[in-house]
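Q: Please design a sequence for this.
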């Protein structure tokens, strides 16, 4: 487990939800890049993937129940048991791995100083590695 993951509390429902969100952000960034580049086939592929990630995100915070009168099932929000601040912190931290995530969620949005420091250290390691490679 990475230091960041340990700081965020390991595998928790909040972190799992945040990972789904970060994946959707990444794919939306790829979709945007495809549209900007005029590559509509790739955009079409990414749109389907964004939809799947958003559906998984939605399933993590809802519950489908059968209607008591035999009618159509109904869906209700069940994310109330989750800690919204933990989801927000993890979502911003996980999104930093992606171009769109950095644009949508600057690292300064992270309120936990230890998590922010770890994200910044990771970004610095990535920058140094890219410099070594000359990219």
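A: Design:
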């Amino acid at each position: 487990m990475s230091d960041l993951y340990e700081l965020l509390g390991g595998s928790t429902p909040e972190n799992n939800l945040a990972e789904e969100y970060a994946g959707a952000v990444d794919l939306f960034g790829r979709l945007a890049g495809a549209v900007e580049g005029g590559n509509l086939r790739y955009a079409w592929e990414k749109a389907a993937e964004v939809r799947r990630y958003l559906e998984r995100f939605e399933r993590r915070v809802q519950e489908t129940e059968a209607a008591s009168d035999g009618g159509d099932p109904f869906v209700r929000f069940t994310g109330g048991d989750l800690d919204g601040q933990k989801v927000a912190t993890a979502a911003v931290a996980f999104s930093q791995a992606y171009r769109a995530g950095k644009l949508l969620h600057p690292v300064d949005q992270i309120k936990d100083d230890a998590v922010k420091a770890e994200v910044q250290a990771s970004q610095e390691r990535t920058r140094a590695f890219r410099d070594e490679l000359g990219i």
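Q: Thanks. Anything notable?
A: The radius of gyration is 18 Å. The chain has six helices and two strands.
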